[in-house]
Amino acid sequence: xxxxxxxxxxxxxxxxxxxxxxxxxxxxxxxxxxxxxxxxxxxxxxxxxxxxxxxxxxxxxxxxxxxxxxxxxxxxxxxxxxxxxxxxxxxxxxxxxxxxxxxxxxxxxxxxxxxxxxxxxxxxxxxxxxxxxxxxxxxxxxxxxxxxxxxx
Length: 152
Prior knowledge:
This protein is mainly α. It is 81% helix and 0% strand.
């Protein structure tokens, strides 16, 4: 593959990755918020007096969905911080100021462990936690809803 073609393919892959990440965050926020809204409407219109034994399912669902939203928002913040730090390092290098290497051995070990991009690792962890909590919240909400459907 020629260098120009490689650069074009690489840039297309980067653009697709960013686009997918943006869509992932939007969909997770939308679906989690929507599930919370639907659960409230379900309580208001269908299960006006839910079985008390099923309330732990509802509380678990709400806690998981709210946590999924919080972790997704935190992920967005860490992502912005990572890009900001990357841009600052590029600016320093462009202006002839080398990026300072970590002098502390613990910092060096941490940077080696995280691949040097701590923000990216945190974003990845938060995204996986968000996904897990979303699935757990939807599952708990489904269990609550199924147990409280009218049985006429």
